[in-house]
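Illustration: SgcJ/EcaC family oxidoreductase.
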Amino acid sequence: MTDDATAIRQVVETWMAASRKGDLETVLGLMTDDVVFMIPGKEPFGKEAFAAASRNMGETKIDGDSEIVELKLLGDWAYIRNRIDMTATPPGGEPVRRSGYTLTLLRKENDGRWRLARDANLLEAKG
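Result:
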């Protein structure tokens, strides 16, 4: 495995660990400033909207797993296809489980770090 592939896998692991801890600042640091997220039923949105939505979740606990199914390096760009299974549990509420795939483009920034630049999230609610 190349150093870049290892670094990209570390981005995913760090994202998941930070999400479990509710560490929004770490998650935001893993994104480019011009990141674009696409999820079913909503217009594409960027970093500020992601941060606002995350803050609105309050004390919701996030848990889950991510498996990189495919990783391809393309110079200073790369894509990964992930299989994600996650559960969000709001305080005093019922857990909501979602699972499915994401297609994520990452870009190697001027500081040499890989960051998430585009993300198409196809997770579906599971009963």
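Reading the tokens back as a structure: Residues 3-21 form the longest helix (19 residues).
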